[in-house]
Write a structure and sequence with these properties.
It holds the Pfam family GMC_oxred_N. Belongs to the GMC oxidoreductase family. It contains ten helices and 20 strands. It has 515 residues and is α/β, with parallel strands linked by helices. It has a single domain (15-513), classed as FAD/NAD(P)-binding domain. The strands form five sheets. Strands 1, 2, 7, 8, 9, 10 and 20 form a seven-stranded mixed beta sheet that branches. A six-stranded antiparallel beta sheet has the order 4-13-14-15-12-18, with helices on both faces. α1 packs parallel to α5 (224-230), α1 (26-35) packs parallel to α10 and α3 (124-138) crosses α10.
C-alpha cells in the first residue's frame, strides 16, 4: 500500500498506542483509534507490498507467507506457512480465502449447552453490532436471505458460484440439505472503500490465496489500514518486536523492535499485541509477560478441515472463480451426532500447484502415477469442512531451545485431535463422501487437513484461568491488550477472521470509552 504521505512519529515521542501486527486483529482497532485522534504506530514484521506485484502464479506467492521455521508436533501436526500464516502489511489477510461466516451463538456457549469445551465471556448479541460494522465496511458479498438467520442482510450480492459450488448445491438438494451462497469478503461489484480508493469487482480469477491484485478481496491493506493512515497512523514495515521496557508499576513504557538490523525503542502509553496465535504467545513467553495464569501458549487449536475430492465427467476448471462460494450450516448441530459442536461445509476451488502438493501428500502418489492423475485436473472438484475443535490443555505452544536471529526461541506447537474431533471428522467425512457420490463423482478420496491458528492467550472472566478479559485487556499488565485469534476460548465452527475483526473493533471502543 502507498505509505508515502504517512505521518511519522519520533521514537522518543510517547505515542498513544503501539500495535504489533497489521492483520485482522491490528488493523480495525488502528483505524478506529486513529480516527478518534489517537497517535498510533504499527510494527509489522513483514514488508509492504504493492498489490500490482501479486501474480496469477503460485510460485511467486511465497513472499506473503510466514515461512520462518516453526516446530510442529503432536498426534495431528499442523502445517504452517502457506496453509495459515501470512506476513506483510495486512498480515494473513493478504493470503486468506475471504470466507467469512459469523460465529453461531451456540458455539459461544458450548460448555453450557454440551458440558464440553469452554464458554466465551462474550455472547452473540454483544458481537452482532461489530459483525455488522465490519461487513458493511469491508463489503461482504452474500445472499439477501440467509437460511440460518432470517434477520441477516449482506451489503453486496453474492459472487458467482464456481463449478464445485454448483455441484455441491445439486448434491445437497438431492440429500435434503440446505445450502446457499457463502458470505465472502470479496466485492461482487465496484465498491467505494471508505477512507480509500474504489475497489474493483472480483474478476473470478481464483487466486485469492496468492494476493489479490485488484483489491476485490478484502485484505487490511485495502480496507482498514488506508483509513488508519488517512487519520494519522504510522506503519513501520519490516519491524519485528522482540521485547518491552516496563516501569515500576509493571506498565509497558516502550516496545523494542528490530528494523534494518538495528534495535529501536518506541515509547508508548498502551500496547496492542495482534501478531496472531503463534507469534503473540511466542513474544509473551519470550518476555515472561502476562502469564501468571500459566495459560499463555495453552489450548492451541486448529480447525478440523478435512476435504473430499472427486473426478467428474464434465469440465470443472477448479482454479476459476471464487473458491468457497457455497455454504451449508445444517451441520452446525447435526441430528443424532455423537460429538459436541459441529461444522460448516463449503465448496472448494484450488490452484494447480497447491492441488498437486495435496495429492502427493494425501494420496501418496509420485512420479508417473501423480502425473497421470493430475492430467485430469480440469475435471476435479472438492468440498471441505471447518469443524469445531475443543480446547485441550495438552495442545500447546512452547519455546524451543533453538533460537532465531533475534534470540527468541522458535515456536514449538504440539497439537492433536481428541475423541470429540475424531468423531466429528468421521461424521463429516462420511457426509462429504455421500454428497460427492450423490453428485456422480468417481475416484473419490479424502485429504486430512488442519486449518487456522487459534487460541494460546484465551479470554475469560478472571486472571486465574485466562490471559485477558472479554475485551482483550491483560489481567496483569495494565496497558497491554491482545487482539487476535489467540484470545478465542474455543475454536468455533466459523472461520476466525470476521470474529477477530469484530473483537478488534470492540476492544477499540472499550479503550476509547475510558472504562
Amino acid at each position: 500500500m502507498n505509505l508515502d504521505s504517512m505521518r511519522r512519529y519520533s521514537t522518543d515521542e510517547i505515542v498513544d498506542a503501539v500495535v504489533i501486527g497489521t492483520g485482522a486483529g491490528g488493523a480495525p482497532l488502528m483505524a478506529r483509534l486513529a480516527a478518534a485522534g489517537s497517535r498510533v504506530v504499527a510494527l509489522e514484521a513483514g514488508p509492504n507490498f504493492d498489490p500490482q506485484a501479486f501474480a496469477f502464479d503460485e510460485t511467486l506467492a511465497d513472499e506473503i507467507y510466514w515461512t520462518d521455521e516453526r516446530l510442529s508436533g503432536g498426534s495431528t501436526p499442523e502445517a504452517f506457512g502457506g496453509n495459515n500464516s501470512g506476513t506483510g502489511v495486512g498480515g494473513s489477510t493478504l493470503h486468506w480465502g475471504a470466507f467469512c461466516p459469523r460465529a453461531d451463538q451456540r458455539d459461544l456457549m458450548i460448555r453450557t449447552e454440551t458440558g464440553e469445551g469452554t464458554d466465551w465471556p462474550v455472547n452473540y448479541d454483544e458481537l452482532l453490532p461489530f459483525y455488522e460494522r465490519v461487513e458493511a465496511f469491508i463489503g461482504v458479498s452474500g445472499p439477501q436471505s440467509y437460511l440460518w438467520d432470517a434477520s441477516r442482510r449482506y451489503p453486496l450480492a453474492p459472487v458467482p458460484r464456481n463449478a464445485s459450488a454448483q455441484i455441491m448445491a445439486e448434491a445437497c438438494a438431492g440429500m435434503g440439505i440446505r445450502a446457499t451462497d457463502a458470505p465472502a469478503a470479496v466485492v461482487s461489484r465496484d465498491f467505494p472503500q471508505a477512507g480509500g480508493a474504489v475497489r474493483s469487482a472480483c474478476i473470478n480469477c481464483g487466486y485469492c490465496h496468492q494476493g489479490c491484485r485488484n483489491g476485490a478481496k478484502t485484505s487490511m491493506d485495502v480496507t482498514y489500514l488506508p483509513l488508519a493512515v488517512a487519520h494519522g497512523a504510522e506503519i513501520r514495515p519490516e519491524a519485528r518486536a522482540h521485547g518491552f521496557e516496563r516501569d515500576r508499576e509493571g506498565r509497558i513504557t516502550a516496545v523494542i523492535y528490530r528494523q534494518g538490523g538495528v534495535d529501536h525503542k518506541q515509547r508508548c502509553a498502551q500496547v496492542f499485541l495482534c501478531a496472531g496465535s503463534v507469534e503473540t504467545a511466542r513474544l509473551l513467553l519470550h518476555t515472561g509477560l502476562a502469564n501468571g495464569s500459566g495459560q499463555v501458549g495453552r489450548n492451541y487449536m486448529g480447525h478440523v478441515a478435512t476435504q473430499v475430492w472427486g473426478t467428474f465427467d464434465a469440465e470443472t476448471r477448479p482454479n476459476k472463480g471464487y473458491p468457497s462460494s457455497l455454504i451449508t450450516e445444517d451441520m452446525i448441530r447435526p441430528k443424532g451426532a455423537d460429538f459436541a459442536g459441529g461444522y460448516l461445509v463449503q465448496s472448494l476451488g484450488v490452484a494447480p500447484l497447491t492441488f498437486a502438493n495435496s495429492v502427493a501428500r494425501g494420496r501418496k502418489l509420485w512420479g508417473k502415477a501423480l502425473g497421470d492423475y493430475l492430467a485430469n485436473y480440469n475435471h476435479v472438484a472438492g468440498i471441505g469442512i471447518n469443524g469445531e475443535t475443543l480446547p485441550c490443555d495438552a495442545n500447546r505452544l512452547t519455546l524451543s531451545d533453538e533460537a532465531d536471529a533475534l534470540g527468541m526461541g522458535k515456536a514449538a506447537i504440539d497439537f492433536g485431535y481428541g475423541p470429540n474431533e475424531t468423531r466429528l471428522n468421521a461424521h463429516a467425512t462420511k457426509l462429504m463422501v455421500d454428497l460427492w457420490t450423490q453428485a456422480g463423482a468417481r475416484d473419490i478420496w479424502v485429504l486430512d487437513r488442519v486449518a487456522h491458528t487459534i487460541g494460546t492467550c484465551r479470554m475469560g472472566h478472571d486472571g486465574d484461568h485466562a490471559v485477558v478479559d472479554a475485551f482483550g485487556k491483560s489481567f496483569e499488565v495494565p496497558n497491554l491488550w491482545v487482539c487476535d485469534g489467540s484470545t478465542f476460548p474455543s475454536s468455533l465452527a466459523a472461520n476466525p477472521a470476521l470474529t477477530i475483526m469484530a473483537l478488534s473493533l470492540r476492544s477499540a471502543e472499550k479503550v476509547l470509552s475510558g472504562a
